Amino acid sequence: MDVILEVKNISKSYEDITVFENLSLTVKKGEVVVIVGPSGCGKSTFLRCINALESIQDGEILLDGEAIDASSKELPRIREKIGMVFQSYDLFPHLTILQNLMLAPVKVKKTPKAEAEKEALSLLDRVGLLSKKDNFPRQLSGGQKQRVAIVRALMMHPEILLLDEITAALDPEMVREVLDVVLSLAKEGRTMVIVTHEMQFARAVADRMVFIDGGKIVEEGSAQEFFDDPKTERLRQFLNSFSYD
Ligand code: ADP
Ligand code: MG
After folding, report:
1. What number does the ligand 1 atom closest to the CA of 38 have?
2. Residue 155: left if φ>0, alpha if ψ -120 to 50, beta else—which one?
3. From the CA of 42, how far away is ligand 1's center (Å)?
4. Number of domains in the chain
5. What is the signed CA dihedral for 78, 48, 155, 200, rounded to 10 degrees?
6. Is 245 a member of any domain?
7. 199 lies in some domain
8. Domain containing 16: what range?
9. What is the pLDDT of residues 99-140, one digit of tens each?
10. Is the dihedral of CA 199, 201, 203, 205 positive or negative?
């Protein structure tokens, strides 16, 4: 498999606190990497660095061999290859679902409107929300809005998707419908880096699990090794803090 993302020895600090040092991660095309770790360990910061939403103090991030550098003129073009979905859906409240989905492709990618609309409708259909196309975000449930946010990311044809705790703000009964969409994306071979606290989902979706704690990757491995045979005491403790139903 070809390497798509290479994070090499990156370090990140905010004024007086070091979030992580010398963190490295390689992601291959089609691979699903799931990152877990205690709250505040730097998972969101790590994803934001990949997308150059945060600057790094040291190290290098390459996407398809091209440096992601906050000061590069090429950044907007390279960033288009990265889709990101956050905990908050951030849909435009005054635009309909269809308008929200067409906005970036038409404005940024100069996709013809008819083409963007066709794709938006087909993706909405796929996530079970075609009937909501003319509704406004406030008329949708949290789970529906998050499915729209995933579709919005897909509309840009990203080479890699970064998902940051996308079900953390949802009522429990809506978590499943969102995770099912992510599982179907994994099945079709999408490259994804996923931060989640949903351990059963992580196990089902991950090609590789990564545990970050104290600014370092403490352990990584296949989902089976990771969950059934953790090597470090820290990971064992972390996994024990989740109850499985
Ligand atoms: P996680 O997503 O794993 O919960 P974060 O990446 O959000 O962790 O945060 C990692 C650490 O960086 C935390 O200690 C947090 O308080 C700190 N941090 C995050 N964003 C900022 C910021 N903009 N300024 C200062 N500190 C920050
Ligand atoms: Mg976070």
Report:
1. 3
2. alpha
3. 6
4. 1
5. 130
6. no
7. yes
8. 3-240
9. 999 999 999 999 999 999 999 999 999 999 999 999 999 999
10. negative
Supply the CATH number for residue 34's domain.
Answer: 3.40.50.300
Q: Measuring from atom 15 of ligand 1, which residue has the nearest CA?
A: 40
Residue nearest to atom 19 of ligand 1 (CA): 45
- pTM to 2 decimal places: 0.95
Q: Tell me which residue of 209, 244, 212, 243 sits closest to 229, measured CA to CA.
A: 209
CA 141 vs CA 17, 61, 185, 188, 214: distances in Å:
37, 36, 21, 26, 36
- Does a structural domain hold residue 178? yes
Tokens of 162: 């970064």
CA gap 15, 13 in Å, rounded:
6
160 located within any domain: yes
Tokens 């070809």, residue located: 2
Counting ligands in written order, which one lies closest to the CA of residue 88?
Answer: 2
Model pLDDT, residue 204:
96
138 secondary structure, DSSP code = G
Per-residue model confidence as pLDDT tens digits over 161-180: 999 999 999 999 999 999 99
- How do beta strands 208-213 and 17-28 pair? unpaired
